[in-house]
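Justification of computing resources. Each target in the renewal requires a structure prediction run like the one illustrated here; the chain below, 129 residues long, is used simply to show the kind of job we budget for.
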Amino acid sequence: METKFETLPGCPFCEKADKDIILQNDFAKAFWDIKPVNPGHTLIVPRRHVENWWGLTKDERNAIDDLVVQMKQILDERYQPDAYNIGMNLGADAGQTVFHAHVHLIPRYYGDMKVPEGGVRNLIPRKLK
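Resulting structure tokens:
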């Protein structure tokens, strides 16, 4: 990858070591989450430092989408998950702690939650009816 992207010193995603990158393309890279929810939990991030989804270019969004699809194939082969969650935390009040845009690709396994119904709707349990 010869193109230089704007990075932020101290950002753990900008400074991710090449040896930790699973997949990459011209605008994005994928690596294992350091605090995985489940085996195979992966982050897909733009190579350019940008705070969240709203600041991404169309090329960056497409590149991230391509890596999500490619990572799913790798995870299917390696872990044989039963399902997936794909998500983003956009802002501190949504739970974002690293302010470099990133997509969580989380393999799900039968029995990893007692009652998985509701998926992302369970983010605020007190609002469930």
